[in-house]
Design goal:
The complex is a heterodimer.
Chain A (H helix, E strand, L loop, with lengths): L2 H19 L3 H17 L1 H16 L6 H13 L3 H13 L5 H14 L5 H18 L4 H12 L9 H10 L3 H29 L12 H7 L4 H15 L5 H18 L5 H35 L1 H12 L3 H18 L2 H18 L4 H15 L7 H10 L3 H24 L2 H8 L2
Chain B lengths: L1 H35 L6 H22 L15 H36 L11 H31 L1
Helix pairs in contact in B: 1-2, 1-4, 2-4, 3-4
Classes of the chains: A mainly alpha, B mainly alpha.
Chain lengths: 432, 158
């Protein structure tokens, strides 16, 4: 049996283990990688990989960015920072038609700049924005659709856990990936607001205007978002200005968040312990995936499957954009079943060499991958954000899925714009 | 199972302490470097070894709270009995794998000690950190064993 065929069989077994036996994804990847190496290289090599790769993967300085950005996100998620942010944005745009939904999108976009996950924003806005929209008799589909979709921006707007994972697995600069996500994040925010405006224009009853707010009240409200502004400037300003590395930015951001919650008297002993506990369990969960992925990547490397795949694709003499469209379709399908960490770790070892061989920019592709996985978060059958919303509010899942359709269209438009104008993603990293 | 909870919790709290200290170390390093041009010597290497505590000691705690990711899409449609059997088999397979990983990491610890491998900059032996990784796998092993037993007990109770 050729090594490449063993690689294909390995991927097949992995899919079966994941889908039909619900094995922990990290352990499944480690198991298949280990057995594959055992078959291809014998026990000495396989044992060598198992005994050293987990330690070497974890005890690698750039990896420390992950738990520290997780820590920063958890601190922010455990305080009222997000809530205050929403009420400030609400004062500025809430009185417009569809304004409460637009406020939700804007608040989520800004909130995403200090957290790295999509669930945090979704949970927060479900708690804060949904009651407001229901009070003003917003259409349930619009209200839930905008929350579920806006929540996904957590993994696009830097700092993003998706970019960190992608950067670590592909050895691309996390700093450049962060910068690359900024303009697409703004573009997506604008597109989401356009979608809301169009809905509210054609169906005014779906998104009535909120209460009027005086200009003075709006200005006064701004003082409540000083912490968000400070954290954002601290983390991204520090990276962009070259004061610290993206790896160190996680620690600086987490420390800054700790200082803010301490100053605003939101830090009790219990909250402190809860924050650390959640950070440790989330980090361990992510790292089991990463360790598994690195063992699996060793196996794939030995099987030479990615190289064979690149060769086959080059021989096809197909337009690289057709292949790119195929890869995007694959990601949309995967995003329906897997969440961001799993989807990235599972596919990058196979897809990344193909993308590089086709001549696409790896940083740009990182942005596209994250965007596509965002789509998966809100599409059936397993749209994680839609599940969170439906589960916590009791609003039928079908209503949520119906509500995300206009935002889904906005996301597709964003991907098309990125494909046509790659500079949207590449301009800022190019200035670093 | 209280003892297993306790072991996982202690390991997890050690990881929690490590993540907090790691944050402080990096912040101090950045501050001293940026403000006084005097970075902490070996901060990178210390962080790397702290990561071992943060990650490996958290594995068990995370497992105990059901945080490790799996795809529930198809299996959740199987009959309850089939689901239970699948879970038992898969936990057992995982248990064997983690046992192998623990054993091999322990072997690596002894090798690193025998060869006298040191952290190149701070001059500290590396084997205690390999031992910490072994401990982390060990805690995960114990937690998985407890999950296995719990599954059998739950099945028998029904």
């Amino acid at each position: 049996m050729s090594a490449e065929l063993v690689g294909v069989i390995g991927i097949g077994i992995l899919v079966v283990l994941l889908l039909f036996f619900r094995m922990w994804i990290g352990l499944a990847m480690a198991l298949v990688g280990f057995l594959g190496l055992l078959y291809l290289q014998g026990y000495k090599q396989a044992f060598g990989v198992i005994s050293t790769v987990p330690y070497e993967t974890v005890a690698y300085y750039p990896m420390s960015a992950l738990p520290l950005f997780v820590l920063m996100g958890v601190i922010v998620g455990n305080t009222s920072i997000g809530e205050e942010l929403y009420y400030t944005v609400y004062k500025w745009v809430g009185s417009l038609r569809g304004g409460l939904a637009s406020a939700t999108v804007l608040a989520c976009a800004v909130f995403s700049s200090i957290t790295g996950s999509s669930a945090t924003g979704t949970v927060l806005m479900t708690k804060v924005a949904l009651p407001q929209m229901r009070k003003y008799q917003y259409d349930d589909a619009l209200a839930t659709g905008c929350i579920a979709s806006a929540g996904t921006m957590g993994i696009l707007v830097p700092p993003s856990m998706g970019f960190i994972m992608y950067g670590l697995l592909t050895e691309q600069s996390i700093g450049k990936l962060f910068m690359a996500g900024l303009l697409p994040g703004i573009l997506l925010t604008v597109l989401f607001i356009c979608a809301i405006t169009i809905i509210a224009t054609f169906r005014p009853e779906a998104g009535p205007a909120g209460p009027m707010v005086t200009f003075r009240e709006k200005v006064v409200a701004l003082k409540k978002i000083w912490h968000v502004t400070l954290l954002f400037l601290l983390v991204l300003g520090g990276i962009y200005g070259g004061i610290f590395t993206p790896t160190e930015a996680g620690a600086i951001g987490a420390f800054g968040a700790f200082v803010i919650v301490a100053i605003t008297r939101q830090l009790t002993g219990k909250i402190f312990l809860d924050i650390l506990k959640e950070s440790v369990t989330t980090s361990a969960m992510i790292f089991l995936l990463i360790v598994g992925a690195f063992i699996f990547m060793r196996f794939l490397g030995v099987s030479k499957l990615p190289f064979a795949l690149v060769e086959i694709i080059q021989q096809l003499q197909m337009s690289k954009y057709v292949i790119f469209a195929g890869i995007i379709l694959l990601y949309i399908l995967l995003g329906m079943f897997l969440e961001i960490y799993s989807a990235v770790t599972f596919t990058i070892p196979i897809v990344y060499p193909v993308i590089v061989a086709l001549g696409f920019d790896p940083i740009w592709f990182g942005v596209v991958v994250v965007l596509v996985i965002e789509i998966g978060l809100i599409t059936p059958p397993v749209g994680m954000n839609a599940f969170i919303l439906s589960g916590t509010t009791g609003i039928p899942l079908a209503t949520v899925f119906r509500g995300v359709v206009p935002f889904l269209i906005a996301m597709v438009v964003c991907i098309i714009l990125l494909a046509v104008f790659p500079q949207i993603a590449l301009f800022l990293p190019g200035t670093m | 199972m209280k003892i297993v909870d306790c072991i996982a919790r202690i390991a997890g709290l050690t990881a929690a302490l490590a993540i907090f200290l790691m944050m402080l170390l990096i912040v101090a390093d950045v501050f001293l470097r940026a403000a006084l041009s005097k970075p902490i010597l070996g901060a990178t290497e210390i962080t790397e070894q702290m990561m071992v505590a943060v990650v490996f000691l958290g594995f068990g705690w995370s497992a105990l709270q059901g945080k490790h990711l799996k795809v529930d899409l198809i299996v959740s449609y199987y009959p309850q009995v089939v689901q239970r059997v699948i879970d038992l088999v898969i936990i057992f397979v995982g248990l064997v794998l983690v046992a192998v990983m623990s054993w091999l990491t322990f072997g690596a610890t002894l090798t690193v000690q025998r060869l006298g491998i040191m952290c190149s900059y701070i001059g500290v032996p590396k084997y205690p950190f390999y031992a910490l990784a072994t401990l982390g796998w060990g805690v995960l092993l114990v937690v998985m064993a407890s999950l296995f037993v719990k599954n059998i007990k739950d099945g028998a109770a029904r």
